[in-house]
Amino acid sequence: MTFSTRQFVTAVALIASAAVLGGCAASGGAGGGSERDIVTTVYQEHAGSSRERVVFPGLDGWRQLDGDNIVVRTRFNDYFLLTLEAACASDLMFSSSLQLAIAQQTRNTLSRFDTVRAGDSSCRIQYIREVDHQAVAEELADRDIDEPFIRLNRDR
């Protein structure tokens, strides 16, 4: 099978276009970052200042943002951004079946001394910040990004 110069140039142009478009799609568009990066940034922009501890009636769900950050939802629909020690990032990012287990020193209180377990690793909480979840939900909806949360099993 032989190709003319024109066919060869057309084929190379199509392959190059596919590569560029594929790169944009993987990164969330030109200059937009990946969807995970966008979601993480939106949560961080709508999170308040760090707290030493928060009191809540119980956890209802959670969402992993990236290797350093997860969001937990309480039974009263309060949302908190937990930033974990950087040493745990690879465990969170590459865990195939991440399960949230928070070791609390005091019941119904989440503090910076508590830990989040990811597989065999135990990650200390560095920062706890309350999130304006309504603002997050509106901004993500404007960007057509789903916001899945994993419900916690309350039977434990």
Overview of this protein structure:
- This protein has 156 residues and is α+β, with helices and mostly antiparallel strands.
- It has two domains: 1-33; 35-151, no CATH class.
- Helix content is 31%, strand content 31%.
- The chain has four helices and ten strands.
- It has helices at 5-26, 35-45, 89-93, 133-142; strands at 47-51, 53-55, 59-64, 69-74, 79-84, 101-103, 109-111, 115-118, 121-131, 150-151.
- The strands form two sheets. Strands 1, 3, 4, 5, 6, 8, 9 and 10 form an eight-stranded antiparallel sheet that branches. The protein has a two-stranded antiparallel sheet with strand order 2-7.
- β4 (69-74) and β5 form a beta hairpin.
- The longest helix is centred in the N-terminal third of the chain and has 22 residues, at 5-26.
- The chain starts with a helix and ends in a 5-residue tail after the last strand.
- 20% of the residues are buried.
- Residues 3-31 have low confidence and may be disordered.
What's the main sheet like? Answer: 8 strands, antiparallel
Number of helices: 4
Q: Bin the strand percentage.
A: 25-35%
The H/E string reads HHEEEEEHEEEEHE
The Cα radius of gyration reads 21 Å
Principal-axis shape: globular
- Counted up, domains total 2
Count of extended strands: 10
Distance between the termini: 65 Å
Uncertain segments are 3-31
Rounded mean pLDDT is: 74
Structural class: alpha+beta
Helix content: 25-40%
